[in-house]
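User: I'm curious whether this sequence folds into something compact or stays loose and floppy. Could you predict its structure so I can see for myself?
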Amino acid sequence: MTHVAVRSAAETVEIPPHLLVLFGGTGDLAVRKLLPAVAGLLERRRFADRLRVLAVATRPLDDDGYRRFLEEALTDSDLSGPCREDLLGRVSYHRVGDGFDVLARKIEAIEAAGDLEGNRVFYLAVPPAVFDDTIDGLVSAGLDRSPGTTRVVVEKPFGTDLESAVSLNHTLHRHFPEEEIYRIDHYLAKETVQNLLVFRFANPLFESAWNRDRIDRVEVTVAETLGLEGRVKYFDEAGIIRDIVQNHLLQVLALVAMEPPVRLTARHIRDEKVKLLEAVFPVMPHSVTRGQYSAGEVDGMAVPGYLEEEGIDAASTTETFARLTLDIDNWRWRGVPFVLTAGKRMERRMTEVVVSFREPPVCLFEVNGVCPVHPNRLVITLQPNEGFDLYFDVKRPGEGMALETKTLSFRYGDEFGQFPDAYETLLVDVLTGDQTLFVRADEAEEAWRIVAGVVDLTQPPTPYPAGSKGPFAATANNRLTPLWPAP
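Assistant: Here's the prediction. I'll summarize afterward.
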């Protein structure tokens, strides 16, 4: 059974009994994304008594105290009352300060009471600084082996540079085989991202044109209207190249540009992604435009500039916008620029891939020395309102040969209604042992190699007003159209 072929029927997948041990159980990611995803699974699937959650964090709470904390935290969520109650009835809590030996005994007690067969998932939703201590603690308590399956989920970032990523992989591989490690990037679980494989390899119309002979350039963009949203310390140390480009954007790039896999299996798909990343030249500083938002207006509200945000040093050179031009040194893509753009406090929220095809070699419709032909563009929208738009020219009715650009459009929501949250999809894959949508060790290291020369740039970034399309230099330096140009 292949991942791409059965995604729409995922609710039929059989999920064995499991204990999910969630490190960072009181953190924003756990409360806002992971635990609601677990609740969604409980609501849509017949788990019966198959799933339990043990949250691990530093707060001095017991089981009842954690349930009260979680109930309050989920008050404003979209979860129904019965769904929240079902989740609360399945969670327990362990305080980190009580030690890993106590954690091991608690795990064994929960598994015995729930007849969970020893299948364990250790989800590390914690800062990279405590990865090593967490892994060492699990091993010291004998939790790296279990009567059933053992899987370790690692949230991004996978290190902070190439050296730390290699070190992190070494730490993981000392105790766990690669088959038990799930490096999670929630972008890969978006339906439209997965559908890139189907779009390309099930439709010869596009695959036959998917090369340097027909495509002029490819742009992958992630734009956010949000600012720091409680991530001040992390983001100011990381910057947007580490936070978005190195993981999300390079993962999407790999799916857009990779060669067809031999089979639709986790190994074969990830093999092709790694080959593609290996062919990408390292990014040089002259190929990067860095920006930093200043005060402006977003969604009708005045917002401060980055340097005025609470907790940010007034001399910070951290970039909140980056546009990188990449070159891929292989037969299919040599000479085609791939432009990756990410920005905060932008004009609007969107994630999209724009494939611009080459113009006709000769203009047959020239009028007064001007060629009215526009290049065909394929716009793949990953969020919001996921779908595809194909722009092409047609003749406007009437005399003469006046041309006008029109669109063929498809929207997932219109055709299929609501679909599962990305984290819900990824949790199912972890519980069923499917690594297709997860990042392999060599894949993570190749991504860091590509951006190694530009993650620590310190020259002052170009200011751009919050609520704009980013610094004008992004267009000038890369000789490209502005973000989300009008058709």
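Summary: The chain has 15 helices and 17 strands. The first strand starts at residue 18 and ends at 23.
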